[in-house]
Design a protein that fits this description.
This protein has 811 residues and is α/β, with parallel strands linked by helices. It is built from 29 helices and 33 strands.
């Protein structure tokens, strides 16, 4: 049978011989995976090996077997494959998972012996695919201009990747059979209303499809849990129901892909979207959900979440129904809901844990991802969080350069957290690593020890414990542990809790005060344990699995640990702290033993130096505000005089609230003494600290230009009020007789505002022109006042009269 992609293969060869790079876009079923590598071989594009990358292990193995079958061979001859934990090298073509390419490049940057690299299903935009492409582009530019590069995809928007690699786009329209699409009549899930379970609706739709169609049925479900629930609920006795997901044993995966004598229903995750050929499939049931890894930089934790599929994913899934004949696609959503689907899934680099990526880049010699040709740049905050974790794991130095320990971690086929545990813990950490890398084998409380007990003896565990055991998961863990043990033969004598603390140094938890089991983690985040969980009584824990809540994550797996166990492996820091406590409004001086954010020891710092206490006290003053200080009348008066002159451009210090707050260290701290609380502040007279801001010349200017008082003609000292816009004094009218020149202040000789008082100290007149007052309004005031105060002098010519504080003598 001629595959639809066949007619564009000459164009592909021409593009490669012209530019060495090409983007091949073809719909599902066109034959990209099974035809392109063999055609390149037939056309002698290169005399070196052809490497094709697949995003999943099951697809890589299946593609290699199909290619080998097409040339009448078995894998391990012309065509081979390499995946995690399994390898059958091929002499001319090798199908590898994307992480394998990264390993190959790091160990041999020239990719010796490789003539062409093909990125298949690049539209999935996995983290390893983006990294592998960036590294390959750098190799082509610097070391291997002869290296051919092909990026293949079914649903990718090809223009951006073609622009990135500067390559032509080769497009095959394909030749899939028509597929009828059937939607639900109404949404099965209504907003803010409880409805039937997801699995219930899925079962109903599968049974409907089985009744209305013939041939095999491929059902897309988000994960293994949903697959098992649906499988147990289906009532289709005449059909062979087989699951298909990545964590299954290979023999069970092969059974799902093999032809069947009876009608087959395959319950699969997204691994069946591309690259895999499942015989006799004519019907697809798409439940509209996909599971993706999401990383929250705020919590520093990754978790798998279930989301709606995108339009591109729905198109991929629908295409599986038209591979061999006309087909039908049942969609578990309405036609109206389809408009709300996102066009493409997000690139994994935008949403997942970047720790492994950062370590790979550091090994490559790059600390800044913008130096690399990524189709999508990683988020800056997530990248920084990953660097911080790797520094904690001793994989990066303080400049984010890779250490020797980091280079060793990069060679291990596990997450850097688990690699750190393996390198230090040795073979005793192999089972733990395998446990944390695979699905949870026990449905029960959070304690890791329960899982280890089940792995060691599952039958005995089931007899003595009331918890379900996943035997498939335990078998997978044992196989993986055996493989890891060979990589790290050395064994160290550490407890399980200690080993886990090596992998999760940022998730060592200390119980907070209070009755509820709430914990502060060493990385600064919070965690909570269900009150009925046995771990809830522990003072300290290591959290190995959390739900990712940014505010307070719920513990799903962890272990109790003691402080002595922690101190053996983790460096603590003794610090002395003088800090302002806003709640008690006092300075607290403590000596603490810290493990990152955790306080392991805390005692009073009895001989804290006055400088440290003073600095903490200044923080308190800034917290409380200047009103918390003892502003005596003399202090306020001095400040008002200085501020009035400063506002008029005189060479005087700025005593505004803002300046005083910002410069507390200079003018107030030397006078704090033993002050340690808000109450102590009221004992400090501010006049002396303010005067310290004025040197002798400044004080002379102040007294000359803004005198504290003026002298009335009678000799009375009159205090000048500088709090208003114009300085003012108040004086009895008779004391100003004989004045022929109005008093002034300031550099601009501003007239004082004089409030003239009656003998009873009541305001009579306010004037900034005393001479003008004598010559005008005084006569009216004299007429009014003579009758009221006959014993006081009211001369006709006040400028010629003698000032007085006395009354007239009686006759």
């Amino acid at each position: 049978m001629t595959l639809p992609v066949e007619h564009i293969l000459p164009d592909l060869i021409a593009a490669l011989r012209d530019k060495g790079q090409a983007v091949l876009q073809a719909p599902p079923g066109a034959g990209k995976t099974t035809r392109v590598p063999l055609y390149l071989l037939e056309q002698n594009l290169t005399d070196q090996k052809i490497l094709m990358l697949e995003p999943r292990r099951v697809a890589a193995r299946a593609a290699a077997e199909r290619l080998a079958e097409n040339i009448g061979e078995v894998t391990g001859q012309t065509v081979g494959y390499r995946i995690k934990g399994e390898s059958k090298p091929g002499s001319r073509i090798e199908i590898v998972t994307e992480g394998i390419l990264t390993r190959m490049i790091q160990s041999d940057p020239e990719l010796s012996g490789i003539g062409c690299v093909i990125f298949d299903e690049f539209h999935e935009r996995s983290l390893h695919a983006d990294l592998g492409l960036a590294l390959t582009l750098e190799i082509r530019a610097a070391l291997r201009p002869d290296l051919n590069l092909i990026v293949m995809s079914a649903t990718l928007d090809a223009a951006p990747v073609a622009a990135l690699i500067d390559a032509p786009i080769i497009t095959s329209e394909g030749q899939s059979y028509p597929v009828e699409t059937i939607w639900l009549d109404q949404p099965w899930q209504k907003p803010n209303q409880r409805g039937p379970r997801f699995e219930t609706i899925a079962v109903q739709l599968i049974e409907k499809a089985a009744k209305e169609t013939d041939g095999g049925i491929l059902v897309f479900l988000p994960g293994a849990g949903e697959i098992h629930h649906v499988q147990s609920a289906l009532n289709l006795p005449d059909c062979e129901i087989t699951p298909l997901y990545g964590a299954m044993p290979f023999k069970d995966q092969r059974r799902a892909l093999a032809p069947s004598k009876t009608r087959k229903i395959v319950l699969a995750t997204a691994i069946a979207e591309t690259s895999l050929t499942i015989p006799d499939i004519t019907t697809v049931v798409d439940t509209g959900r996909a599971r993706r890894a999401r990383f929250d930089p705020g919590s520093g934790m990754s978790r798998l979440i279930t989301e709606r599929v995108t339009k591109a994913e729905a198109t991929q899934r629908r295409g599986r129904a038209g591979r061999v004949q006309s087909g039908t696609c049942y969609r578990m959503w309405t036609k109206g809901e389809e408009g709300g689907l996102a066009p493409f899934p997000p690139a994994e680099i935008e949403s997942t844990d970047l720790t492994a990526l950062v370590l790979e880049l550091a090994q490559w010699g790059t600390t800044d991802p913008s130096d690399m040709a990524f189709l999508t740049q990683p988020p800056a905050k997530a990248f920084s969080e990953a660097q911080s974790l790797l520094r904690a794991l001793k994989a990066l130095d303080k400049n984010n350069r890779i250490t020797d320990h980091g280079k060793a971690l990069a060679k291990l086929p596990v997450h850097p957290r688990l690699g750190h545990m393996l390198m230090i813990g040795g073979s005793s950490a192999a089972t733990l690593t395998a446990l944390l890398e695979n699905r949870d084998p026990v449905r029960g409380p959070s304690d890791i020890n329960l899982r280890l007990e089940a792995i060691a003896n599952p039958k005995n565990f089931e007899r003595n414990r009331p918890f379900r055991v996943d035997h498939g998961a335990i078998n997978q863990i044992r196989i993986e542990a055996k493989r890891l043990t060979k990589l790290v033969p050395k064994t160290e004598n550490y407890s399980t809790a200690q080993l886990l603390s090596l992998a999760f140094p940022d998730r060592i938890g200390l119980r907070r005060k209070g009755d509820e089991p709430r914990y502060l983690l060493s990385g600064g985040k919070g965690a909570i344990i269900a009150p009925d969980d046995p771990l809830a009584v522990a003072r300290m824990i290591v959290a190995t699995d959390l739900d990712g809540d940014a505010r307070e994550a719920k513990l799903r797996q962890g272990i109790a640990i003691t402080e002595p166990e922690i101190r053996i492996l983790h460096e603590t820091v003794d610090i002395e702290i003088c800090e302002w406590n806003a709640r008690t409004r006092t300075v607290v001086a403590r000596k603490r033993t810290m493990l990152d954010a955790l306080v392991l020891g805390d005692q009073t710092w009895k001989n804290a130096p006055p400088e440290a206490i003073g600095e903490a006290m200044l923080i308190g003053i800034r917290d409380l505000g200047l009103q918390s200080l003892n502003w005596s009348k003399a202090a306020r008066f001095l400040r008002s005089r200085v501020e009035w002159l400063h506002a008029r451009g005189a060479d005087m210090p700025d005593l505004s609230d803002r300046w005083l707050i910002e410069n507390l260290e200079g003018w107030l701290q030397p006078f704090l003494g033993k002050c340690r609380s808000a109450g102590d502040l009221k004992k400090i007279e501010l006049l002396a600290p303010l005067q310290s801001l004025l040197d002798y010349p400044a004080m002379e200017r102040l007294n000359h230009l803004a005198p504290a008082a003026i002298t009335a003609p009678t000799g009375t000292r009159l205090a000048v009020d500088y709090s208003g816009d114009t300085p003012s004094v108040a004086v009895r009218l008779q004391e100003m007789f004989g004045t022929t020149k109005h008093p002034t202040v300031g550099p601009d000789h501003i007239p004082l505002l004089i409030e003239l008082l009656s003998p009873a100290q009541r305001p009579v007149q306010t004037t900034a022109d005393l001479i003008g007052f004598w010559n005008s309004s005084y006569s009216d005031v004299r007429k009014d006042m003579r009758g009221r105060y006959p014993r006081h002098p009211w001369p006709e010519d006040p400028m010629a009269a003698d000032p007085t504080r006395r009354v007239k003598r009686r006759r």
